[in-house]
Design brief:
Elements lengths: L1 H41 L7 H32 L12 H4 L3 H15 L1
Helix pairs in contact: 1-2
Membrane topology: Multi-pass membrane protein
Keywords: Membrane, Transmembrane, Transmembrane helix
Organism: Necator americanus (Human hookworm)
Length: about 120
């Protein structure tokens, strides 16, 4: 079990490093640069669309920075406290549906009874 936890942490560190390299470094260096500066020379017939494309790609870059904030926070918490990150996506269903956990469990139980 300890080896699996260590492997998961190692893969998460590799994921964070890959995010930094590919999404925060290479993406603006290669794709944004090529779209904003180089594409005007390579495809002048499409020049009216480049500002829109550039703005959309910059928005994607801003989202990458925003998501990295969460990745860095998780990485810092795991590195400093040593606690395992918990997956809370499936626990807070009441925020999405507006129903309590008890109501959702009752609905699932009724659905199971109808199947049988």
């Amino acid at each position: 079990y300890k080896l699996i936890d260590l492997g998961g942490s190692a893969v998460f560190v590799l994921f964070a490093a890959n995010w930094i390299l590919c999404r925060l470094y290479w993406y603006p260096c290669k794709l944004l640069y090529a779209t904003i500066y180089g594409a005007v020379y390579l495809g002048p017939q499409d020049a009216p669309f480049f500002p829109v494309l550039g703005i959309m790609l910059i928005l994607i870059y801003a989202m990458n920075i925003y998501w990295f904030k969460f990745i860095a926070r998780m990485l810092w918490r795991v590195a400093t406290t040593g606690e395992e990150p918990e997956d809370n996506r499936e626990w807070d269903t009441s925020a999405v549906t507006g129903l309590s956990k008890r109501s959702l469990d009752a609905m699932a139980e009724n659905k199971e009874r109808k199947r049988q």
